Amino acid sequence: MLQALLRRLLPGLHAPLPKLDAETFILWEPCSHSHGEIVPGYAKYLLDLGYRVLVLLTPARIDEGLFSRFSHPRLQVARLSQRRIRRFMRRADLTRAAGVMVTTAGKLPERPDRSIDLPKVFGGRVPHPLLLVEHEARRRIEAGHWDPRNITLRRLMVPGVESVVVNPHYFGPVTPRPKNPRTVFLMAGAARSKRRNQDMVLDAVRRLLAEGETGFELRLIGKPGKTPLPDDLRGHVVETGRVSFDRLYHEVEASDFVLTAFQRDNPDHAFYRTTGTTGSFQLAYGFLKPCIIQQDFAAGTALTTENSLFYDDDEGIYDCLRRAIGMPGDTYGQMCSAMQRDSAALAERSRAGLKGLIDG
Known about the structure:
Blueprint: H1 2-9, E1 24-28, H2 39-48, E2 52-57, H3 59-63, E3 75-79, H4 82-91, E4 99-102, H5 118-122, E5 130-132, H6 138-142, E6 151-152, E7 164-165, E8 183-188, H7 198-210, E9 216-221, E10 237-241, H8 245-254, E11 257-259, H9 279-287, E12 291-294, E13 308-311, H10 316-326, H11 329-359
Parallel strand pairs: 1-2, 1-4, 2-3, 4-5, 6-7, 8-9, 8-11, 9-10, 11-12, 12-13
């Protein structure tokens, strides 16, 4: 009966679904628009632990190339609408699986007190273990429903509040690349001050150009702002708009530095240094790219002065860009090697933390 149900709910697969047994872990991303980049990394950890992995994703995310650089004989990626996935979660006997990981717990239905309505999600048969990834811890903490077994992508900077850090940053095999002759900076995210804050960076770019520095390019990935780029920057600043995962991977791989523009005194940025994180870190870890970041936002992450460039205030981002442009190739190579070392160490800690949750 279970297999018949799976066949009805998961049509059009090119390979048979793994059986739901003690060897199969279900990985579900309930958000149809964001957070997809974390799914390959979580699948990789579960595969490393010896499980078969059944990933439940909407067709659009798959068609964007989310798993274009990563395949495995024990990995099955199912193409489903969220409606069908939720129906499957309510009707299938998930207790027969090795466990379930929900990679965006904030998209699950909640009770009025902000606790997750697990019976509504799973039809009264809550799987065990059930692993929940929280991208914004503050709501659950303030409501009094924080569980220290909740997974976060970085250490929470909230006194007395613990989580299990399982940081996914695997998109496929990579090796460090030499620095481009013309330094390429990459910023990802929508062009809003509370997300990308590109105006601060454009001011620094304009200053570099005014001083005669032209050996660089800034590539902006994501939904552009309403104001067109000024003509005087067009030779050095490129807006790609929103891109597929396949294109995103290529853009990051071809860049030299992943650039953020956080400000400690911007209240909209507090999330990124206390109870949340940014996908830019995942790209830096996964593609072994040094990050440019305001130093307060590196706390609780794997970013250090050995693998990244830190700035202190708004003026400092100009200095970081200039340092990056003038950085010799061997120094850049050492920084990428440090990122490779620290990224691998973060992956090892994350894998151990995930195993502890499953075994516990």
